[in-house]
Prior knowledge:
A: Arc Repressor Mutant, subunit A, disordered N terminus, B: 6-stranded mixed β-barrel
Amino acid sequence: MGKPKTDLVRGTLDLLILKALSLEPLHGVGISRRIHRITKDAFRVSFGSLFPSLHRMEEKGWIVAEWRMSENNRRAKYYRLTHAGREQLKNEELDWRRVVKVMSMAIESA
Amino acid sequence: MPKRLFILLRNLLSRQKIERDLDEEIESSLEILTQEKLKAGLLASEARRQALIELGGVDQVKEEVRVVRIGHSIDALTEEVKFAARSVLQKRVFASGAVLTCAIGIAALTSVFSLFRSALIQPLPFEGEEALIAVTDDRGAPYSVSPPYYLQLTQRSRSFDKIGMYATKQVDFRTGETREWLTWASVTASVFEMLKTRPLRGRVFGAGEDLPGGPNVAMISAAFWRNRLGGQEDVLGRQIEIGGTGRAIIGILPDYFRFPAKDVEVWTPLHVDFGPILDNPRARIFQMAASLRPGFSVDQAAAELRYNVGQLDREHPGLSPSREPALMHYRDYVVGNYRPAYLVLLLAGLFVMAIACANVTNLFAIRSVQRRRERALCVVLGAGRGRLLARPLLEALLISAAGSVLGALLAWWSLTYMKVLARESIPRLNEAAIGLEGIGLATALAVTTAVIASMLSAFKSPETSLASSLSMTSMVSSQNRSPMRRFLVMLQFALAVILMIGAGLMIRSLHNLLNIGLNFNPDNVLTFSPKLPPSLYPSNKKRLEFTERLEQRLSSLPGVVAVGATNTLPLGILARRMSIRAEKDRQTERQLSSISCVVSSGYFRAMGIPMLRGRYFTEFDRNGKEQVVIIDESLAMHFWPNDNPIGKQLFVDVYRAGPRPEPEAVPLSVVGVVPTVTRHAFKRVLGSGVETGQYYRPSGCYMGTIPEAASALIGVKPGTADVAVAAIFAVRTQGDPMRLADAVRHEFSLLDKEVVPSGFTTIENLWLDFSAERRFYMTVLNIFGLYALLLAAVGIYGVVAFSISQRTHEFGVRVALGAKAPQIFRLVMLEGLRWVVTGTAVGCFAGMALSRYISSMLFEVSGRDAFTIGSCIVILSFVAFLGCYFPARRATRLDPLAVLRAE
Lengths: 110, 903
């Protein structure tokens, strides 16, 4: 029971990050704040999970990073979606909707 | 996939840059968080603290990111290796002890294994070698046959596929003006078929070519072609002059073809008349070899051969050689009596390796206990089981790898040294080379032992009592009295004792050998023999003339004390035994098979052999009416224990050639008695412990007539009266004998330009060669014994020192309770020595039991020699005592207060 749960969480986190970046590039803290906003305070993602996911997704080629000046005139590492990332976002959204439909069906029945 | 590879490389190669980037990112995120908090109204320090809490620990986050990166496992491994290397370098004493131990063990085992492998396992370097059988007599000496006998055997044998006959000789080879000497083999065509020989060029002898009247052809070795003919292309068909006969080269044999001897350069077909069956021992100058027919075993072939020989004896009595034939694989024939020696050396190497492994095990076990604190820390920090094991494993691998490299170098050097030491006295030793198998075997053993040793304790120790590990409180007793460590120490000492006993016995053997009374004076004697080309000196008579003139000239040279000649030097390889008897009747019981010698009159003076009774030979003895003989003491004692032998008669047989060669009994009158030249000087011929005595006849004496078969090879008319020739010169000089070599050469050239002297050496060198074999065994076993001693000393020291270091608390308590220094000292010593005593005792008994297997290598010393065993025990006890003494002394110096306070 433990392992599938983490996978689900990781997959979910990836989707959230991709969604968070779909509008505009953000730095790590910014991504955390946006996820908090778009989930309406329901999800608080720890930085111990966020940063590893970011770096993993960067290695996968879904996002790229570059150093920029933040709103406070401080250097920060900004991430943005790549083309492949956008594709991945679309696919993950589709998958997620499908999973939700099936699960709902399963739970409703019987 | 290539993308992943790219990223992997990037991660590995730009590690520092990536780490810096990560640091910056985390730092910048921290700042941003802090700013947020500040904006929310917190004070600066509080804002920072809250930011840190929210971030969740800088290092933890960084570590989480690192774990996720591609190539992390490689990174982690590299880190571990670096850490292991650092910690190994820190513990210099342990590391150097372990590396040295590994190296010594590997060097010892690899070098002797290489010897063993090349001599006994590797096939001789020619094809068909597995089926090749050597025909020897029952003593292992070559079984010499005559051609008709060979033919008869060939016709009657079914278990042999092919049988070949051959003879080797030194012969002269002429190119233009120069004359050189080389080893020549005359073989039947079947020899090449037997060995499935594929020539480098040209062809081998065909079936008909070895019959009388066959063509004068020859095959040359590749070395001959390269060195003497310059490797020229058009060599086939060229004529060369061998032994005065022109021959056409029809083929070149490859370098690895070394039959029947290593240095044969020319082979010619054997043109011998197989004619009527001759009963003449002097025609028995050929040797046989055969290849087994598939499906037949050596034993079957041997049985058949004995049967055939029996049949032949009945049909033609007296034809066969006097001894029984025996068969053995050719490879075994070459290595022969040295097989037990090789085995013993291999065993010695294994012992050293075993001691080394025991040492390594103990060292690593000790290290593992020392590591408990570190291990506990790692567990606390969250290292998994795998990581815990990885560290000691890596250390073990690093150490054994270093040990292997060092060991390989040491092994290569040892092997080179061994080859030099043996001076060609042991067959096939020079073929030895460090093979991959040797190093592989030894290295595998070392690595396995190191790994197992380091793993043992890692698995054994419980993860419980972390607290006690961390605080280093006194260990539970069971850790100190580890039965494994005790057993290993015992084992080490037992093996060391056995090795030392072996070495000690060898030392005594050599000592005995060097002190045997030679009864001649080996100092300052030069020897050489003239190479008389058969074309110019076809008969013994002509050779005799030359040698006598030479002797005369040499004796007048300055620096020469005495000159003599013989046909058999003591310590040389040639010696013939002939039957000598006190009565004319051939069936008498008063006869002995003795070493027969032909010497010139000056021989005894040159060799420093005193005359006990009677007189030396004079020039009148040769032509006088009576044939004379000088005998040695053992012959005199044998035939006339209570009488003066001077004037008495002895009889030997010589052969007159004819339709049926007849033995002729020649009466010899005893004119002198000399001391017995020790039988050990002829050991190669005689085997051990055979009393045979020696008799000397003057050069030029009557030796019967030359038989037909041999005359073809020697090149004289059959029926010529034969005289004996002494052609090995011994010149006693004042001062260094080799300095006279040039003067001798000059004399040769004055007498006859075509004759050159060869084989310049001194009797002392022959003596060194003779003792080289024993010296070699002794040196190798001595070195191994020393290794064993050293390793055992390190072993006991390490174990005792460690045991003490673990028991400091106990000693502190004892001292606080009133124990005095001597008591502590005695406590430690007794404990350490107790381990040693058991091991030594076991080793002594084992050593005595095993020593009978090396009896063939010993010389006049019993395997249970009390002096040797006693000395070994004493030496080993002393070493053990030293090993315990220093740690024990340290134990007595412990300050009890300091120790107890450290708890």
